[in-house]
Specification:
The chain is α+β, with helices and mostly antiparallel strands and about 140 residues long. It has helices at about 5-15, 50-60, 115-120; strands spanning about 25-30, 45-50, 65-75, 75-80, 85-90, 95-100, 100-110, 125-135. InterPro entries: NT_sf, Polymerase_NTP_transf_dom.
Length: about 140
C-alpha cells in the first residue's frame, strides 16, 4: 500500500505540530489509511492532545478544507475543533498495535444501488468494520 497524504492535510499537520502545547501524536484513519481513497475522498486524522490544544487550534488555524480532524483529550473523549463532531475513543475500540499502527472499528455507509433504484429513495446500511490507523507524526 502506498500512503498518499494530500497537500492540505500535510499543511494542517504542519500547523498542528507548531501549536503550543503540541500534540502527542497524529494518526491517519479512514479511506486513505485503508487503501480505499478515491479522488473525492477527504483526509481523516486523529490527533492525541489536550483541551488546551483544541483551544489553540481553534484560535490559530482556519477550518481545514477536505480534512476531518478529531482531537482526543482526557485519554478518551474526542472532538473536531472546527465541526460539531464529538465522541468517545472507547466506542471506536481503539487499540494500538505497535508504534506506528492501530486498529479501530469504523462505521461506513454502504449504499444499496439496486434497492435505491427499486424504491426511488436512497437505501443502504451502516456497516461496522475493523480499520487500520497509521501514525503520521512524530
Amino acid at each position: 500500500m502506498r500512503l498518499q497524504v494530500p497537500d492540505q492535510a500535510v499543511a494542517l499537520i504542519s500547523a498542528l505540530t507548531s501549536l503550543q502545547p503540541s500534540p502527542d501524536s497524529i494518526w491517519l484513519i479512514g479511506s486513505r489509511a485503508n487503501d480505499r481513497a478515491t479522488d473525492q475522498s477527504d483526509t481523516d486524522l486523529i490527533v492525541f492532545g489536550f483541551e488546551e490544544f483544541i483551544r489553540a487550534a481553534i484560535a490559530q488555524i482556519a477550518q481545514p478544507q477536505d480534512v476531518d480532524c478529531l482531537v482526543v483529550f482526557n485519554g478518551d473523549d474526542y472532538r473536531d475543533p472546527w465541526q460539531e463532531k464529538s465522541g468517545s475513543l472507547s466506542n471506536l475500540e481503539w487499540r494500538q498495535i505497535d508504534a506506528d499502527s492501530a486498529r479501530y472499528i469504523g462505521t461506513k455507509w454502504m449504499p444499496d444501488d439496486e434497492s435505491s433504484r427499486e424504491f426511488g429513495a436512497l437505501m443502504g446500511d451502516l456497516v461496522n468494520r475493523e480499520e487500520l490507523a497509521i501514525r503520521l507524526w512524530p
